[in-house]
Amino acid sequence: MTNASLSRETLLPKLAAHVLEHGLGGASLRPLAKAAGTSDRMLIYHFGNKETLISDLLEYIAGIYSAALDMALGETRPATRQECFERILALGRGPAMQPFMVLWWEIVAGSARGLPGYKEAAEQMMAKQLVWLEGQMPEDDPDPAGGARYLLTLIEGSLMLTVVGHAQTAREGLLASDLAPS
Amino acid sequence: MTNASLSRETLLPKLAAHVLEHGLGGASLRPLAKAAGTSDRMLIYHFGNKETLISDLLEYIAGIYSAALDMALGETRPATRQECFERILALGRGPAMQPFMVLWWEIVAGSARGLPGYKEAAEQMMAKQLVWLEGQMPEDDPDPAGGARYLLTLIEGSLMLTVVGHAQTAREGLLASDLAPS
DNA sequence: TTCCTCTTGTAGCGATTGCTACATTGATCT
DNA sequence: AGATCAATGTAGCAATCGCTACAAGAGGAA
Rounded distance, CA B117 to CA B111, Å? Predict the structure, then answer.
């Protein structure tokens, strides 16, 4: 058992790396196994079946996403909600977060479709992002909790619009909000 | 040619119905063909290969989505941005739009992944939703174009949060925005 | 040693994938 | 009538899918 668990935990990082690069949808056992340095036979041995492999993998990915957010904490807190919004949006659009972004929308789609494990992972990732965002709110913000939720909604909407080629639309929308640069 | 085109246009509605119910990811030729009352053989004959079939199908779906929006035009224009927001959010969360919603996030994911045809369809669907939303803005709104873009960003962010089980988060975020009910 | 359990490789199963070669229809055109 | 051509069915291809049966090695317990 201890050995099996150890192997599982050894496998997960490499599986996650493969999925971050090639996506969840087309992920099949043999390519996953090759990326992790084993065989499909062993993946089934360690995880039981593909469904729980994906579930466990999503849970693990949610964990490293959380760690990535912690490492992206800014040195200085932004002074305004607008600055906070723009800083985080730039982070989300940046190349470092791009593999996560591409995978993220796949997780959202799986969550909408009801695929096992997807909604749990998505829920956890959003919850983490929310508390992270609360910590990034301006110090003098009158309502950090509500403000974080408001910004989260706007940021995710903007990121989605960006992904489908409507970054300009999101940018123009910001100008009509209470976050518009004065 | 005329006959082939006619057949293609006859097939597309049934293909769209199947995809709206079962998703794009797992869509393979034989189930698609069965749903459309033909064979995989004929799907390839009419569309050339699966990739252009999916592209054409996405384009067609964008069209019927546009038509569905036109049919969902309200009798009365909302009086405030807040009312407009809530009305449209309720529409998006309603059961009638649910098949579209589930498919939508799959299209967003494909767009992020760069799958052929996905980004074009997503772009078109968002553009349509945008002009539709502009027509739904309050009559006395000082900036209908900017306001529609702002609302679109907020609505899509809220819908995404809803899909991953964070509807409450979106609701609380709204309270911290300038759309909060007075 | 002898057993026993954990781990792994080899080989393969039946199902499904996108796609194609070949033959046949039925209608239209000359 | 004979030729032509789009449309369709049948059969099957090689590749891949998730998963499993079987055997063999390894290492600790008796």
Answer: 8
Residue span of the structural domain in which B150 resides: 2-175
The residue behind tokens 């979106």 is B170
Q: What is the dihedral of CA B104, A27, A35, A47, to 10 degrees?
A: 120
Comparing CA positions, the residue from B57, B148, B118, B34 lying closest to residue A169 is: B148
The integer distance in angstroms from the CA atom of B64 to the C1' atom of C29 is 39
Share of chain B above pLDDT 90, in %: 91
A6 touches chain B (CB under 8 A): no
The gap between B38 CA and C24 C1' (Å) is 18
pTM flag (> 0.85): yes
Distance CA A27, CA A106 (A): 12
Residue B35 sits in a domain of what CATH number?
Answer: 1.10.357.10
Decide if pLDDT at B94 tops 80.
yes
Is A31 a member of any domain?
yes
Per-residue model confidence as pLDDT tens digits over B131-163: 999 999 999 999 999 999 999 999 999 999 999
